[in-house]
Each structure stands twice: as structure tokens, then as C-alpha cells.
């Protein structure tokens, strides 16, 4: 049985689960702990979905599929903390540790990286080998001289809200006007006509594009939420396919969604989201994207079922 670690508001999980027999998957929504009971112990584990009357144990588990285990309803933490945040952190750490144990035993489906996390800094450094990359700076305290000329956009390394559940969107800024007491991530503005997103699924690609003129500002996320239908499929050249595969091989990822800008016929790298939302590109599965991802998960799960897994939680050194 495939254990899906997600949250109740992840629509991508809703969509991809349609491709599975209900008996083959167990969905755990981290933001709804009241719907579950669990017990991890020295001989195994058992997780119960009390609303559906179903359970998964170390004897029925076969693969761990990581989606989006996040809390959309945030806690306004008092100065000295609160019990709700403690409960969340305890639960998150337990299931994150469960993921790491599955990762160590080679039982993670698709969303896995043997080289561990490849953050924005390493992404940009590696991407320079394979794509065009606009100049960038992570800075604090003093303004780099290069930022006193040209056009720049401010970006962010995390999705942490900046107040009233608002997130920091990409926006063109005048670096000379920035408050240097804050940490900043800026990149030279790329004046391309088209934004391209590519989903990479274990050696296969699914590309789609949209004209940048259709976006409200420099950040496409708002437009994606309001009108995902503006992203029809597009093609990639053999060189672009090879560049994407080279980047993924070097970083160690087997799945992820790239963001690019196409300028003068060339792809300019923005970022790789190793486990971002992707189902909005083909919600009705008219082009087979959902099936492509589901089939990759199923193939890995079948390989996991063919060898010892977490039955009885033996010492990791006994697993193969």
C-alpha cells in the first residue's frame, strides 16, 4: 500500500489519487490529525484513518509518496509558544523521520533525492552549466555595486508568510530603495515574451508555456490560480531536453517542475520546484500528465513490493 503524506487542501493529491485503486493508497493529511490515530513502536507501526475505517501497517506498507504536508491555517504563535504549535511540530517531526527511514531503505516513490535538498543557491550554480541564468545576488547589510545599474526583481527563498497570510511575490524593485536591514534575493529582470514550465518525471518531460503578457505582474502564481487554462503544451528542442536531464542527474532529483523564461529562443532558468503543484497543467488528464506521474509511482511501488520493506521494522542494515 502506498502511503501518501499530504494535506487536506492539496488538489494535486486529489487528482492523482483518481489514478489508483482506493485499496492501494492510504492518504494522511497532516493538517487533520483528529481524523487519524497512529502508533509507531519497536516492532512496527499502525496508522488508522478513523473517518474511512481504514489502516496501514508495516506489513501492508510498500511505498512512501511525499506530496504537500503543510498547514494552510497558520498559528499566530505567542512569544513563549503554544500547545497547538507543539502538537504540529511533534507530528511533523515524527512523519518526517518516517520519510527519512523510508528514504534510507529505498522505499520512497518518485519524490526523492539521494543528494538531499538542493536549495536555491545550489540550483542557480548548477543551472549555469546547462541554461542561461540571469545575474543574481543574495545580500544583506550593504548594496552590491552591480545592483546600482539595470533592472532587477526581488524574489524569495521560502513561502513563509510576511503578515496576514500574505506571501512575498516576485516584483520589480529599485535595489537602491531596499532596506538593507532585511535579507534580499534579487535577480536581473529577464525580458522574455514567454514563460515555460516543464514537469520532469523520471526521465520524461511534459512542457507547457504561456505568454508573459497574460500575467498580472512578474509573478505567474496569481494567474496560475485564477486561469490555469492559459498554459497549453509546448515542445522542447533535443538540446533543451538534454540540458534538463543533465541538471536533474547532477542534482539527484527524479521529479520536479522547472520554471523558465524563453527569451530570443533560449530557455533562461528561474528555479526547480522539487515537489510543487503540477496537476493544474492537465486537471482533466486530457494530455496524460496525471497518468504519466501515477504510472511512475506505480512502477516504483511494484519494485518495492518485490523485496523486503518495513515488515516488522527490522534494523535498517537488514533491509535490501
What does the secondary structure layout of this molecule look like, with pairings?
Blueprint: E1 2-6, H1 11-16, E2 25-29, E3 36-41, E4 44-49, E5 54-57, E6 63-66, H2 83-104, H3 120-127, E7 136-139, E8 152-155, E9 171-173, E10 184-188, E11 194-201, E12 204-211, H4 221-226, H5 238-251, E13 255-263, E14 266-273, H6 289-305
Parallel strand pairs: 1-2, 1-6
Antiparallel strand pairs: 3-4, 4-5, 7-10, 8-9, 8-10, 11-12, 11-13, 13-14
What are the defining features of this structure?
320 residues; alpha+beta; D-amino Acid Aminotransferase, Chain A, domain 1; 3 domains; four-stranded antiparallel beta sheet; 6 helices; 23% helix
Describe the model:
The chain has 320 residues and is α+β, with helices and mostly antiparallel strands. The protein folds into 3 domains: 2-109, no CATH class; 120-132 and 193-287, D-amino Acid Aminotransferase, Chain A, domain 1, CATH 3.30.470.20; 136-188, no CATH class. The protein contains 6 helices and 14 strands. The strands form 4 sheets. A 4-stranded antiparallel sheet has the order 7-10-8-9, with no helix packed on it. A 4-stranded antiparallel sheet has the order 12-11-13-14. A 3-stranded parallel sheet has the order 2-1-6. It is globular and about 60 Å long. The two termini are 19 Å apart.
Amino acid at each position: 500500500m502506498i502511503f501518501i503524506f499530504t494535506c487536506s487542501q492539496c488538489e494535486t493529491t486529489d487528482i492523482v489519487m483518481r489514478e489508483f485503486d482506493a485499496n492501494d493508497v492510504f492518504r494522511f493529511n497532516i493538517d487533520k490529525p483528529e481524523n487519524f490515530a497512529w502508533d509507531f513502536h519497536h516492532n512496527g507501526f499502525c496508522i488508522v484513518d478513523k473517518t474511512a475505517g481504514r489502516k496501514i501497517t508495516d506489513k501492508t506498507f510498500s511505498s512512501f509518496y511525499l506530496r504537500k504536508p503543510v498547514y494552510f491555517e497558520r498559528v499566530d504563535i505567542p512569544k513563549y509558544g503554544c500547545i497547538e504549535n507543539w502538537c504540529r511540530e511533534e507530528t511533523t517531526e515524527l512523519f518526517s523521520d518516517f520519510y527519512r527511514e523510508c528514504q534510507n531503505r529505498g522505499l520512497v516513490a518518485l519524490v526523492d533525492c539521494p543528494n538531499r535538498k538542493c536549495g536555491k543557491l545550489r540550483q542557480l550554480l548548477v543551472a549555469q552549466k546547462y541554461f542561461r541564468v540571469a545575474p543574481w545576488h543574495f545580500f544583506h547589510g550593504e548594496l552590491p555595486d552591480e545592483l546600482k545599474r539595470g533592472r532587477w526583481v526581488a524574489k524569495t527563498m521560502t513561502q513563509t508568510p510576511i503578515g496576514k497570510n500574505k506571501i512575498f511575490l516576485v516584483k520589480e524593485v529599485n535595489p537602491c530603495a531596499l532596506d538593507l536591514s532585511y535579507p534580499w534575493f534579487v535577480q536581473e529582470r529577464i525580458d522574455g515574451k514567454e514563460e515555460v514550465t516543464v514537469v520532469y518525471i523520471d526521465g520524461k518531460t511534459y512542457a507547457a508555456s504561456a505568454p508573459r503578457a497574460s500575467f498580472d505582474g512578474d509573478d505567474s502564481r496569481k494567474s496560475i490560480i485564477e486561469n490555469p487554462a492559459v498554459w497549453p503544451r509546448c515542445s522542447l528542442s533535443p538540446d533543451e531536453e538534454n540540458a534538463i536531464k543533465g541538471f536533474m542527474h547532477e542534482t539527484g532529483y527524479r521529479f520536479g517542475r522547472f520554471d523558465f523564461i524563453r527569451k530570443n529562443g533560449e530557455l533562461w532558468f528561474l528555479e526547480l520546484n522539487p515537489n510543487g503543484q503540477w496537476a493544474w497543467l492537465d486537471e482533466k488528464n486530457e494530455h496524460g500528465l496525471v497518468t504519466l506521474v501515477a504510472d511512475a509511482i506505480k512502477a516504483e511501488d511494484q519494485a518495492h513490493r518485490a523485496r523486503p520493506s518495513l515488515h516488522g521494522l527490522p534494523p535498517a542494515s537488514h533491509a535490501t
